[in-house]
Design goal:
The complex is a heterodimer of chains A (about 325) and B (about 200).
Chain A lengths: L12 H16 L15 E6 L5 H12 L3 E6 L11 H11 L3 E6 L4 H7 L6 E7 L5 H15 L6 E5 L6 H12 L3 E5 L15 E3 L2 H4 L5 E4 L15 H8 L3 H4 L7 E3 L12 H4 L6 H20 L17
Helix pairs in contact in A: 1-5, 1-11, 2-11, 5-6, 5-11
Chain B lengths: L18 E4 L1 H19 L5 E5 L4 H16 L5 E3 L31 E9 L3 H11 L6 E9 L11 E5 L7 E5 L8 E5 L13
Parallel strand pairs in B: 2-3, 2-4, 4-5, 5-6
Antiparallel strand pairs in B: 1-8, 7-8
Helix pairs in contact in B: 1-2
Classes of the chains: A alpha/beta (about 325), B alpha/beta (about 200).
């Protein structure tokens, strides 16, 4: 693995499978009496969140704490960041505090990349969502959830439905799922597909009803109204009729197909309550798996004197 | 390590040369004796849990459990205990992937846990295993069974059940191969000085 996790494209297939296997072991921890491992004792993980986030920050915090790391939360609100401090000065402060890893969420695409490659900090940088660009640990936890339900992702069909334009989750998922051998179809109105979608390793469709009966996974995305300044679709009602997942559409899915959502959901918009609460829905499980996957990522980046290699790193234990 | 034979003693078919100290039948006899000793010491199979240390301790634990089942007529729970994150050399090497930890249903609380490993060497793996076990519960007692004890302990740890005591020098390497993971059952010593540099301080 590389020293930073900035993009799902940073992961080779071996890296991604190593994360998934490691996450499987981390997940077993939830059933143990002591939910703690000593692997990152004495390491410091800083959660640097320039954008509001509940589940991702809590998930990273829980992951780091279960690995015995010290966690420092650094939120934009109520800190020097809201007083006009630059990213560089914040980074230098973190460096001076001796952070071993910086988990960063930023409204600007590319901010984690800047942090990692500017020479301001020596720590590993983990992208926890940057603008409309990427959110690689979300893609890993989605892949992990699919892998637990469906086994190998080779040849599996995944439909990602909704606001692809503003979604960092869609981009990271498309890249990672392709690496793992799945076939991704993005379903959205033309106005919510990004420019340059032709260069993504995916199919696209405007017709949800044609795509979902063939899919093994249906992932619904939230319509990110806070990032929209124009009319991307006529009305919310029309959007949910054409691109929302309701009970009628759910009835056309194959028996094994799972329904996912990266959260937060807007019930009644992209997904109806009966679908979100149905037996097919793995949305709550995604949150549980998020902690396990983030533990795996932090462990593989920080557990040794350098990040884990691929494939052969499980060898050499016996003798 | 075991998976990487030194260039000088690799045979064309991938197996290793070197001196075989235990062949398949010796290993069978040693495991049968260990099974009996465990039963004798425990006065039966009640409350026993066998935990193999991956990778080769796990099939050894299963084989011992089969022999106990044959003698006592009852199944003994078998699990595996990965010690990777508890090792004292975790920070000295690149991060390593984890191996399976499977604790039998019923847990380890109040049980007599027998840790099973292939080679006992520095004792550091066993120290890590004791720490890992501490996070899983409170066994009534912990015992240690190993197929080979090659000496050179660096910690105050000893085995309760030993397949074979094998006096070695530090430049020698001991490798255990087991059918199921490897081609065949064997314990082999590789003795060239060139091997010494590739030797880890494991087990």
């Amino acid at each position: 693995m590389k020293r930073h996790l900035l993009s799902a494209a940073d992961l080779t297939r071996d890296d991604a499978e190593l994360v998934l296997r490691t996450a499987e072991e981390m997940r077993a921890l939830a059933d143990r009496p002591i939910k703690k491992l000593p692997a990152l004792r004495g390491r410091t993980v800083v959660n640097l969140f320039f954008e509001d986030s509940t589940r991702t920050r809590i998930s990273f915090e829980a992951a780091a704490k279960r690995l015995s790391a010290d966690v420092i939360n650094f939120a934009a609100k109520g800190s020097s960041l809201s007083k006009g401090e630059s990213l560089k000065d914040t980074a230098l402060t973190l460096e001076a505090m001796g952070a071993d890893a910086v988990v960063v969420r930023h409204g600007a695409s590319g901010a984690p990349h800047r942090l990692a490659h500017s020479g301001w900090v020596r720590s590993s940088v983990v992208n926890a969502g940057d603008g409309t660009h990427e959110h690689p640990t979300q893609a890993l936890l989605d892949a992990f959830t699919m892998w637990r339900h469906l086994g190998s992702l080779d040849g599996r069909r995944v439909a990602i439905v909704g606001d692809v334009l503003h979604s960092r989750v869609a981009r990271s998922n498309a890249l990672l799922l392709r690496t793992l051998g799945a076939e991704v179809t993005l379903v959205a109105p033309p106005t919510l597909l990004p420019v340059g979608i032709d260069s993504w390793p995916v199919e696209t469709s405007y017709d949800l009803d044609a795509v979902i009966p063939k899919s093994d996974v249906v992932m619904m995305l939230r319509v990110q109204a806070e990032r929209m300044q124009g009319g991307f679709f006529p009305t919310a009602r029309e959007y949910s009729r054409r691109y929302g997942l309701d009970g009628r559409r759910m009835a056309t899915l194959q028996d094994h197909t799972i329904v996912m959502h990266p959260g937060p959901m807007v019930r009644g918009m992209e997904i109806t309550a009966d679908v979100a609460d149905s037996a097919r829905s793995v949305i709550v499980e995604q949150v549980t798996n998020g902690v396990a996957v983030r533990m795996a990522v932090l462990y593989l980046l920080l557990g040794g004197n350098e990040p884990a290699g691929s494939a052969d790193s499980t060898e050499g234990v016996a003798e | 390590m075991c998976a990487q034979p030194a260039p000088t003693d690799a045979l064309p078919d991938g197996r290793q040369s070197g001196r075989i100290v235990l062949d398949a039948r010796d290993i069978t006899r040693a495991l049968t004796r260990i099974a009996h000793e465990i039963l004798e010491r425990n006065k039966g199979a009640q409350d026993l849990v066998l935990l193999g240390i991956p990778s080769r301790g796990v099939p050894l634990a299963q084989r011992v459990a089969e022999r106990i089942a044959a003698v006592e007529g009852c199944d003994v729970p078998v699990g595996s205990l990965d010690v990777t994150m508890y090792r004292d050399d975790l920070r000295l090497k690149p991060a390593r992937g984890l191996l399976p930890t499977q604790i039998p249903t019923g847990g380890v609380d109040g049980k007599t846990v027998v840790l099973v490993d292939d080679v006992l060497f520095s004792g550091r793996t066993i120290r890590a295993a004791l720490d890992a076990l501490n996070d899983l519960g409170r066994p009534r007692a912990v015992r240690l069974a190993v197929l080979v004890d090659r000496g050179h302990r660096e910690l105050p740890i000893r085995a309760d059940f030993v397949g074979k005591n094998l006096p070695t020098s530090l430049v020698e390497r001991v490798s255990v191969t087991l059918a199921g993971i490897d081609a065949e059952d064997a314990v082999t010593i590789h003795g060239t000085a060139a091997d010494a540099t590739s030797e880890g301080a494991d087990a």
